[in-house]
Amino acid sequence: MAGGNCTPVTEFSLTGFTKDPVAQLTLFLMFLLIYLFTILGNLGMIALIRASPQLRSPMYYFLGNLAFVDLCSSTIITPKMLVDFLSEKKGIAYAGCMAQVFIYDLFGMTECFLLAMMAYDRYTAVCHPLVYTLVMSPKCCLQLVIGSYLVGLTNGVGQTMGMSSLSFCSSNVLDLFFCDISPLISLSTSDTTLSRLILRTSASLFGMSSCLVVLVSYVAIISAILSIRSAEGKCKAFSTCTSHLTTVSIFYGTALFMYLKPSSDSSREDKWAAVLYTVVTPMLNPLIYSLRNKEVKEALRRLAKSK
Description:
Radius of gyration: 21 Å
Shape: globular
Largest sheet: 3 strands, mixed
Order of helices and strands: EHHHEHHHEHHHHHH
Strand content: under 5%
Strand order of the largest sheet: 2-1-3
Number of helices: 12
Helix content: over 70%
């Protein structure tokens, strides 16, 4: 535990990426462009789904919520990072750091479960097409989405409560560009047993369960597709899953790389892994669905012709 003469930290210092002014300006322009694409892509996807009658199926209902979550999770991190590129002092207040932890963990876990619900939707569509509309009713879809947000909220509250019990005295320097749980726990001068227990329990209970839903769903989907005799039928069935499978692979792949990779001496590798997970992935999801999904392309063409 921290000693009685501990002076609580009121602000954390973020090291960012580099101190070179030219490199900082280059990175600022690059991340600004990524963020603009993220905003326009996800807002455009939400608007397209709401404006297009042919995109009213459960899959696009989930996709609209996924776009909203990507928009929020990117916004809680990227604007602060952009400001820091132009500032000499790269810091964040203790309250702001806790808020960043809470909101990012909320939307991060919500995205995990939304992707799992989308996998279940694809499983029902491919493996049980005759009862698809019955199983994936509007009421059921609403309940699944609300459940995803509630799990995310539970995760955010739990992680933040665990963090708020920690003391920070000896150092306030975070070798990252945002407040992440693991570096904060390592920085604490108090007993971190409870925080680490909450982190591991959340990852095991929520993260692994959502991942299991995705894996089981796709094992059943692949098995069903392989049982189709015609090559055309296989391609048609698989084409309904390619966009979601690509999104899932990127999300879980970068998450696993970021949180489960062996610790290295180079913090630069950790930072770029975090960039891929927190900044780049939210930009890629609308691009994947707009480039690989025929229904989205057709909706875009119809919307363009109507104007």
